[in-house]
Amino acid sequence: MSFQFVKKLPIPAEIKKQFPISERAASIKADRDAQIKDVFTGASRKFLVIIGPCSADNEDSVMEYVHRLAKVQDKVGDHLILIPRIYTSKPRTTGEGYKGMMHQPDPEKKPDALAGLVAIRKLHLRVIEETGLTSADEMLYPENYWYLVDVLSYVAIGARSVEDQHHRMTTSGMDVPAGMKNPTSGDFSVMLNSVVAAQTAHDFIYRGWEVSTNGNPLAHVILRGATNKYGNSIPNYHYEDLIRLLHMYDQRDLSYPAAIIDTNHSNSNKQYEEQPRIVHEVLESRSLNPRLHDLIKGVMVESYLEPGNQKIGCEKHIYGKSITDACLGWDASEQLIYDIYRKC
Predict the structure, then answer these.
(1) How far is 138 from 239, CA to CA, in rounded Å?
(2) Which one, of 169, 155, 147, lies nearest residue 9 by Cα?
(3) Which of 26, 54, 189, 297 measures 20 to 30 Å from 123, CA to CA?
(4) Which tens digit of pLDDT belongs to each residue from 103-160?
(5) Among the CATH numbers 3.40.50.1820, 3.30.420.10, 3.40.50.300, 3.20.20.70, which is that of 29-314+326-343?
(6) Nearest alpha-carbon partner for 264 in 240, 229, 299
């Protein structure tokens, strides 16, 4: 047998009991959840900016970033809701490389899943307690969502996971907005089928239990660009793409049609400096068509304290610089948020 069972992990209830959410933090989350949900239902005209590192690799630098973000939120809160992007599991195209804090709390040490589960829960709790913000994370592993169910206000399903039935059914049991990314092929039908599945009630097996869900009416799409058969990036944030998405939504009986535009990945060809330009184009497209204005609920931006990226273990490690995909630096990110504020 090629599997080696390293250690039995605590169930989510045990981790949550050891690191509980306080009444104050739970109240903050409930209020933030309501505000974010109102954007998706149309009760609020605010615009979402889901922004932060490609991968949360260091607790101290991530917390410094979120503290800075909280100060900006105070200035733009009448028009924008800032959601710190704190992705603690990192999907890898080939399976190689740093897989995120959940696998390796310290990127330069060996994987430790137990320490990782504790580290990511503590990080999300710190965000709420210290800044009053609540975060977004990617659900790379459906069975691990329950460790964070009470601390997240937004969940993303990645391009490589969106076709997986277990991801779709788990999303159907969430009570927060969940964004279903288009697959790397770019097929809008696959993406929208995943929204149909996530908005539908299901009976299935989850963490050793037979469970039933009611469906998540706040499941929606995320456009992140695509890759053609030659490996070249194909953006899908242009006006024509958005109109096509709108028409495809019209053909389905879905609750609260909504889209978030991911400005990096294949939309930018991983050229992180292009993200502000892409945001401005999306806002311009949104302003030209009332129905697109209602459909496009926000943008997703990869951003960290320092611009660019670096390799793990490099001799001159730079604090707050991504060790995965290259990110927009803080100064440019702050300016971008103010630009969005003025246009919204």
Answers:
(1) 27
(2) 147
(3) 297
(4) 888 888 898 999 999 999 999 999 999 999 999 999 999 999 999 999 999 999 999 9
(5) 3.20.20.70
(6) 299
